Amino acid sequence: MTISLIIKNRTKPQKDAKLKAVKKLLIISGSPKTLAEGSKTYQSCLMIQNLAQERFNTDFLSLGDHPLPTAKPEWHQNPFGKSVPAEVREVALRFKQADAVILASPTYHGSYSSHIKNMIDIFHYDFLRSKNIGVITIGHGGAAILPATHLQDVIRTAYGQLCHTIICVDGVTDFDDNGKLIQSEVLKARIENLLNELQVVESKK
Fold it and tell me: In sequence order, which residues have a C-beta less than 8 Å from that of residue 117 and are 6 or more positions away?
Protein backbone atom coordinates (compact mmCIF):
# COMPACT_ATOMS: atom_id res chain seq x y z
CA MET A 1 0.00 0.00 0.00
CA THR A 2 1.42 3.35 -1.02
CA ILE A 3 2.03 5.72 1.87
CA SER A 4 2.08 9.47 1.43
CA LEU A 5 3.55 11.33 4.37
CA ILE A 6 2.37 14.88 4.77
CA ILE A 7 4.91 16.58 6.99
CA LYS A 8 2.84 19.71 7.34
CA ASN A 9 -0.16 21.13 5.56
CA ARG A 10 1.02 23.68 3.04
CA THR A 11 -0.96 26.88 2.73
CA LYS A 12 -2.85 26.89 -0.53
CA PRO A 13 -1.81 29.63 -2.98
CA GLN A 14 -4.20 32.49 -3.50
CA LYS A 15 -6.41 32.43 -6.57
CA ASP A 16 -4.39 35.23 -8.16
CA ALA A 17 -1.10 33.33 -7.72
CA LYS A 18 0.50 31.86 -10.79
CA LEU A 19 2.90 28.98 -11.29
CA LYS A 20 6.20 29.47 -13.02
CA ALA A 21 5.77 28.16 -16.57
CA VAL A 22 8.99 26.18 -16.92
CA LYS A 23 11.24 24.55 -14.35
CA LYS A 24 14.06 22.03 -14.69
CA LEU A 25 13.31 18.91 -12.66
CA LEU A 26 16.08 16.37 -12.04
CA ILE A 27 14.82 12.90 -11.09
CA ILE A 28 17.39 10.53 -9.61
CA SER A 29 16.98 6.79 -9.25
CA GLY A 30 19.32 5.74 -6.46
CA SER A 31 18.95 2.02 -7.07
CA PRO A 32 22.04 0.05 -8.13
CA LYS A 33 19.71 -1.92 -10.42
CA THR A 34 18.74 -0.96 -13.95
CA LEU A 35 15.28 -1.11 -15.49
CA ALA A 36 16.27 -4.33 -17.28
CA GLU A 37 17.13 -5.81 -13.88
CA GLY A 38 13.63 -4.99 -12.63
CA SER A 39 14.42 -1.98 -10.45
CA LYS A 40 11.26 -0.86 -8.67
CA THR A 41 12.85 2.49 -7.91
CA TYR A 42 13.56 3.01 -11.61
CA GLN A 43 9.95 2.18 -12.49
CA SER A 44 8.67 4.66 -9.91
CA CYS A 45 10.92 7.37 -11.37
CA LEU A 46 9.63 6.72 -14.88
CA MET A 47 6.06 7.13 -13.66
CA ILE A 48 6.98 10.44 -12.03
CA GLN A 49 8.77 11.62 -15.16
CA ASN A 50 5.76 10.80 -17.32
CA LEU A 51 3.40 12.75 -15.05
CA ALA A 52 5.83 15.67 -14.72
CA GLN A 53 6.55 16.31 -18.39
CA GLU A 54 3.61 18.65 -18.97
CA ARG A 55 4.84 21.14 -16.38
CA PHE A 56 8.58 20.53 -16.09
CA ASN A 57 11.59 20.17 -18.32
CA THR A 58 12.63 16.80 -16.91
CA ASP A 59 16.06 15.21 -16.63
CA PHE A 60 16.41 11.59 -15.45
CA LEU A 61 19.55 10.08 -13.94
CA SER A 62 19.81 6.39 -13.06
CA LEU A 63 22.72 5.64 -10.74
CA GLY A 64 22.28 2.00 -11.70
CA ASP A 65 22.94 2.79 -15.36
CA HIS A 66 25.59 5.38 -14.55
CA PRO A 67 27.28 4.55 -11.20
CA LEU A 68 29.62 7.24 -9.92
CA PRO A 69 33.16 6.64 -8.69
CA THR A 70 33.76 6.65 -4.94
CA ALA A 71 33.65 10.22 -3.63
CA LYS A 72 36.93 11.89 -2.67
CA PRO A 73 37.20 14.71 -0.10
CA GLU A 74 38.97 17.03 -2.54
CA TRP A 75 35.92 17.04 -4.81
CA HIS A 76 33.69 18.74 -2.23
CA GLN A 77 34.83 22.31 -2.77
CA ASN A 78 34.86 22.16 -6.56
CA PRO A 79 33.19 19.18 -8.28
CA PHE A 80 33.91 20.94 -11.60
CA GLY A 81 37.69 20.85 -11.14
CA LYS A 82 39.90 19.50 -13.93
CA SER A 83 41.06 16.61 -11.76
CA VAL A 84 37.49 15.48 -11.12
CA PRO A 85 36.29 12.61 -13.39
CA ALA A 86 34.13 13.69 -16.32
CA GLU A 87 31.11 11.67 -15.16
CA VAL A 88 31.17 13.44 -11.80
CA ARG A 89 31.43 16.88 -13.44
CA GLU A 90 28.46 16.00 -15.63
CA VAL A 91 26.26 15.10 -12.65
CA ALA A 92 27.39 18.26 -10.84
CA LEU A 93 26.30 20.30 -13.86
CA ARG A 94 22.92 18.58 -13.96
CA PHE A 95 22.40 19.44 -10.29
CA LYS A 96 23.44 23.04 -10.88
CA GLN A 97 20.99 23.42 -13.76
CA ALA A 98 18.05 21.90 -11.88
CA ASP A 99 15.51 24.05 -10.07
CA ALA A 100 14.01 21.03 -8.32
CA VAL A 101 15.22 17.51 -7.56
CA ILE A 102 13.50 14.23 -6.69
CA LEU A 103 15.64 11.73 -4.80
CA ALA A 104 14.33 8.18 -5.14
CA SER A 105 15.82 5.26 -3.23
CA PRO A 106 15.11 1.65 -2.37
CA THR A 107 15.26 0.62 1.27
CA TYR A 108 18.57 -1.01 2.15
CA HIS A 109 19.12 -2.11 5.76
CA GLY A 110 16.65 0.47 7.01
CA SER A 111 18.09 3.42 5.11
CA TYR A 112 18.75 4.81 1.63
CA SER A 113 21.13 3.22 -0.87
CA SER A 114 24.91 3.57 -0.92
CA HIS A 115 24.60 4.95 -4.47
CA ILE A 116 22.63 7.95 -3.14
CA LYS A 117 25.04 8.36 -0.22
CA ASN A 118 28.10 8.31 -2.47
CA MET A 119 26.56 10.89 -4.82
CA ILE A 120 25.75 13.21 -1.91
CA ASP A 121 29.30 12.89 -0.54
CA ILE A 122 30.73 14.22 -3.80
CA PHE A 123 29.21 17.66 -3.36
CA HIS A 124 29.67 20.70 -1.14
CA TYR A 125 27.62 20.87 2.07
CA ASP A 126 25.05 23.27 0.57
CA PHE A 127 24.64 21.72 -2.88
CA LEU A 128 20.84 21.70 -2.55
CA ARG A 129 20.55 25.34 -1.52
CA SER A 130 17.42 27.07 -2.88
CA LYS A 131 16.21 23.94 -4.66
CA ASN A 132 12.85 22.29 -4.03
CA ILE A 133 13.47 18.65 -3.12
CA GLY A 134 11.06 15.72 -3.26
CA VAL A 135 11.57 12.26 -1.79
CA ILE A 136 10.19 8.91 -2.89
CA THR A 137 11.29 5.63 -1.33
CA ILE A 138 10.45 2.00 -2.02
CA GLY A 139 10.33 -0.78 0.54
CA HIS A 140 8.26 -3.64 1.91
CA GLY A 141 5.42 -2.66 4.20
CA GLY A 142 6.22 0.40 6.28
CA ALA A 143 9.99 -0.01 5.89
CA ALA A 144 10.17 2.68 3.21
CA ILE A 145 9.49 5.31 5.86
CA LEU A 146 13.00 4.76 7.25
CA PRO A 147 15.07 5.97 4.25
CA ALA A 148 12.53 8.76 3.71
CA THR A 149 13.12 9.96 7.28
CA HIS A 150 16.90 9.79 6.90
CA LEU A 151 16.85 11.70 3.61
CA GLN A 152 14.85 14.51 5.21
CA ASP A 153 17.76 15.26 7.54
CA VAL A 154 20.26 15.14 4.67
CA ILE A 155 18.19 17.52 2.54
CA ARG A 156 17.80 20.05 5.33
CA THR A 157 21.52 19.85 6.15
CA ALA A 158 22.31 20.60 2.49
CA TYR A 159 19.99 23.64 2.62
CA GLY A 160 17.37 22.10 0.33
CA GLN A 161 13.72 23.10 0.48
CA LEU A 162 12.04 19.83 1.46
CA CYS A 163 8.60 19.22 0.02
CA HIS A 164 5.95 18.34 2.58
CA THR A 165 4.61 15.35 0.66
CA ILE A 166 6.92 12.34 0.86
CA ILE A 167 5.88 9.21 -1.01
CA CYS A 168 6.65 5.70 0.23
CA VAL A 169 5.88 2.99 -2.32
CA ASP A 170 5.23 -0.53 -1.05
CA GLY A 171 7.56 -2.93 -2.81
CA VAL A 172 4.95 -5.70 -2.63
CA THR A 173 1.38 -4.39 -2.85
CA ASP A 174 2.15 -1.58 -5.32
CA PHE A 175 3.59 -4.07 -7.83
CA ASP A 176 1.98 -6.95 -9.69
CA ASP A 177 3.10 -10.59 -9.69
CA ASN A 178 5.57 -9.83 -12.48
CA GLY A 179 7.22 -7.05 -10.49
CA LYS A 180 5.66 -4.25 -12.56
CA LEU A 181 4.52 -1.05 -10.88
CA ILE A 182 0.74 -0.73 -10.61
CA GLN A 183 0.02 2.84 -11.71
CA SER A 184 -3.04 3.29 -9.54
CA GLU A 185 -5.10 6.45 -9.33
CA VAL A 186 -4.13 6.76 -5.67
CA LEU A 187 -0.43 6.76 -6.49
CA LYS A 188 -0.96 9.16 -9.40
CA ALA A 189 -2.81 11.58 -7.14
CA ARG A 190 -0.03 11.54 -4.55
CA ILE A 191 2.62 12.13 -7.18
CA GLU A 192 0.58 15.07 -8.49
CA ASN A 193 0.56 16.52 -4.96
CA LEU A 194 4.34 16.25 -4.84
CA LEU A 195 4.72 17.84 -8.27
CA ASN A 196 2.50 20.74 -7.16
CA GLU A 197 4.85 21.39 -4.26
CA LEU A 198 7.90 21.25 -6.49
CA GLN A 199 6.60 24.17 -8.52
CA VAL A 200 7.38 27.72 -7.46
CA VAL A 201 4.35 29.86 -6.63
CA GLU A 202 4.75 33.50 -7.63
CA SER A 203 2.44 36.28 -6.52
CA LYS A 204 0.70 37.98 -9.41
CA LYS A 205 1.83 41.59 -9.81
Answer: none
